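Q: Could you fold this chain for me?
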Amino acid sequence: MNQQVKHACLSGENVILEPLKLDHVPALIIAAGDGDLWQLWFTHIPDGKGMKAYVEQALTDADSGDCIPFVVRHRLSGKIIGCTRICHYDQIHRRLEIGYTWYGKSFQRTAVNTETKWLLLNFAFNELQCIAVEFRTHWHNQASRQAITRLGAKQDGVLRNHRIQADGTLRDTVVFSIIDKEWPQVSSHLKGRLAFHQHHCAN
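A: Sure. Below is the predicted structure, expressed as structure tokens.
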């Protein structure tokens, strides 16, 4: 992975996706505290004590070429409001996954997620020349499944007993994807959703 890709900064009207750094830990702790996100049992979002290790692991994975982690900065307020990453990046087969995405509760169900996903998908298909982008989520995370479907992704299947959670429970993982030939239509759909949201926020 070249340095330009590794340190990419993706900018939209609502958010800026900046390369994740250890310096972001304090801001991410505040963002995760907006809604006490670490209490969500179906996903892993660290609390204040675990955030530094969470970021360090993401940076280690980035050094190995497996992922490109970002923080999500809200353009209007300038605040760090969450994070996301490109992960399981298979450069040979030109596939990757978009995951580890979370935002403070105040920014959920806003234009933030739609634009974040558009920026990442556009980067994947147009800059990295990917042929497929995956999304994965917990079977019981209905909000996430609905959000992925709204993006225009199609469900590929369910990986049963896919992971053993920290508390010992078993996770069934739902896999979705968007492929390269679908991207132009999905892109238009997401841009339409963003324009609709901007119009209604302005009124």
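A (continued): Helices lie at 3-6, 25-33, 51-63, 111-127, 142-151, 183-202.
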